[in-house]
Amino acid sequence: MRVTPVHLNSAIAGLFMIGSSCFALGSVPAYVNAVGGPIDGITYFVGSIFFTSASFLQLVQSQTPAATEVDAASATRPTPLRWWAWLPHDRAWLAAITQFPGTLFFNVSTGAALIHNATVAEEQRYVWRPDIYGSILFLVSSFFALLAVAVVNGSRRHTSGWRIGWWNMAGSILFMASALASFILPSGELVSTRISVAGTFGGAVCFLVGAALMFPAWRAALHQSQSSRPSTGR
Could you read off the pLDDT of 177-196 as tens digits, one per residue? Predict the structure, then answer.
């Protein structure tokens, strides 16, 4: 299968934006009141599917050099994708390979949340635990992503990649806060519904901003590669 790097990057950013929007929308109380709990749960589940799709494509992108090391000419040239690789020394790949299973845990937690009449023990096992595991993996992924940006950009801390990395780290921290606040007490209530909702909404917004920044970051990278090419004067 061949795709153009620019279209692959756009697809990843777009899928992340849709997934983030679903999570943000699902956490808005007015939306829940308008559509009801079941539809709200479906909104989260659909959002998790978009997250997983984007994360899988980002993993494939990270292990396909021709899809990342591009210039203005090669960005629109179809390139074969590398479906499997083992790159433990590549921090960008480590970020992608830890993020992907995190999204799968969110698939499980949001899917299980659709089950009606579940006991507290069942909700702890199938909803809360996958949620906390996914949040932990997102934090680890964000850490590796920041390390990857630091390696590429050295001491420059105001690049697009650095900003994207910190927006995603903020989103991961807020998702973790939401997961911790969603622990189900024996009474069936959450530790803190307010923190759970606010963490989900804030984290989703951070991920949405980070995904949106991927478009100008890509254009800036192409411009930089073009300007850094040696001129061929006559």
Answer: 999 999 988 888 899 999 99
Find the angle CA(128)-CA(134)-CA(138) to the nearest 5 degrees. 145
126-158 residue pLDDT tens: 999 999 999 999 999 999 999 998 865 554 556
Look up residue 229 and give its two tokens. Answer: 């090419």
Of residues 197, 165, 163, 164, the one with CA closest to residue 179: 197
- Look up residue 128 and give its DSSP letter: I
Q: Do residues 142 and 95 make contact, with C-beta atoms less than 8 angstroms apart?
A: yes
Distance CA 173, CA 100 (A): 17
Structure-block tokens of residue 226: 């073009």
pTM, two decimal places: 0.89
**Are the beta carbons of 174 and 203 closer than 8 angstroms?**
yes
Give the model confidence (pLDDT) of 76-134 as tens digits.
788 889 999 999 999 999 999 999 999 999 999 999 999 887 888 889 999 999 999 99
| Spatial CB neighbours of 233, under 8 Å, sequence gap ≥ 6 | none
Orientation angle between helical segments 37-62 and 91-112, nearest 10 degrees:
160
The CA distances from residue 181 to 49, 185, 200, in Å, are 23, 10, 10
Closest by CA to 59, choosing from 155, 166, 144, is 144
- From the list 200, 190, 185, the residue with the least C-alpha distance to 110 is 200
Residue 229 per-residue DSSP state: S
Number of H helices, E strands in the chain: 10, 2
Question: If residue 2 lies in a helix (H) or strand (E), which one and from where to where?
Answer: strand 2-3
